[in-house]
Amino acid sequence: MKRILVVLLALCMVVMPAAVFAGSYTDTDGHWAESSIERWTAEGIVSGFDGKFRPDDNMTRAEAAAIYARLLVLDEKADIAAFGDVAADAWYADVIAKAVKADILKGTAEGKMSPEGTLTREQGMVMLCRALGIEEQNTISKEFKDYADIADWAKGSINALVNMGIVNGMTKDTIGPDVDLTRAALMAMLDRAILAYGATDGETLNVPAGTGVVLIVANNVKVENAPAGAVVVTGQGVSGTTVNGAAVNGNSVMVIPSKPAVGGGSSSDGSVTPPPQDPTVPTTPTTQEPTTPQEPTTPQEPTTPQEPTTPQEPTTPQNPTQQQTPELTAPIA
Questions:
Q1: CA 115 → CA 61, 72, 111, 132, distances in Å?
Q2: How far apart are CA 292 and CA 121, in angstroms?
Q3: Cβ count near 65 (within 10 Å)
Q4: Angle at 17 (CA atoms; ends 13, 23), nearest 5 degrees
Q5: DSSP 224
């Protein structure tokens, strides 16, 4: 009998979904961003600290760099020797070099990266758009009474994220551009922005309804039922991707176009599967910017700023110094 119980327990551990294990954090049960945190923990993009995720802690610039380096499986590195506040032996030196090379992260001032400084919400939104290739937009679909407080260099990105439903605001009429971005808020933004994530070689992704980013970072991924307006982003060195039957190059961005109902190419819900004789071939823009909106999901953002604590994203516990707010002397993120 004891042997049978051991076998059954082993089987349960094999088939149990990853999200169950993600629920092991002691401070996320019932949190407004719990499902988003579980999703990206299960994907291996974020991790906690001593059994906690600390969702309401502020996101540091180094932590954000680590998240995007993992999410995009970045390999190439920039020479960051010019940033005097990034020690070569710091846990974040490697991920910052990758984020700088990918043009996701920039300095806060001449020779300064402020890796342990917090990210404001507007800085975090600019980083998100750079990472996922989301194109800036000139107008915004919702009124915010603090819109004038948004820096000019961040307005295009914030316009796009609000229009796409990825950002809903801190309250119904405030965006909070200067408020520090929390770890939970970034998880929610990523959750809304990314419809499907292909991180396993050879897998097939059936894209859910709606518009958003389909992010591919593994080889030979087959994307099916990508609807019109979906933005397909393939990572560095990725090969063998097909989207609705069409081959897609690595390190590229494409938008699934709407097609007229000719030759069976368009469905009743507007999704498109290009026929074989008319495949959609993506280009490889240097800025990787898609152009279409996404549909909003349920509100995910807290209404009050949170107090920063220590960084949470190194693979081993670190002892960072006190966080500092980066100087906004140039468009940064």
A1: 5, 19, 12, 21
A2: 22
A3: 27
A4: 95
A5: E
Tell me the percentage of the chain whose pLDDT exceeds 70: 70
Instruction: Evaluate if residue 119 carries a pLDDT over 90.
Output: yes
Q: Where are the alpha helices (DSSP H) in the chain?
A: 2-15, 18-22, 34-42, 61-71, 93-101, 121-132, 152-163, 183-193
Contacting residues for 250 by C-beta, under 8 A, at least 6 apart: 234, 235, 236, 237, 238, 239, 241
Amino acid at 166: I
Q: Is 234 left (phi over 0), alpha (psi -120 to 50) or beta?
A: beta
* Residue closest to 115 by CA, chosen among 101, 133, 97: 97
* pLDDT digit string, tens, across residues 47-78: 889 899 999 999 999 999 999 999 999 999 99
| Rounded Cα distance, 158 and 95, in Å | 25
What is the token pair recorded at 59?
Answer: 């996101």
Residue 280: closest CA among 264, 300, 258:
258
Q: How far apart are CA 91 and CA 180, in angstroms?
A: 22
At residue 60, the 3 state secondary structure works out as: strand
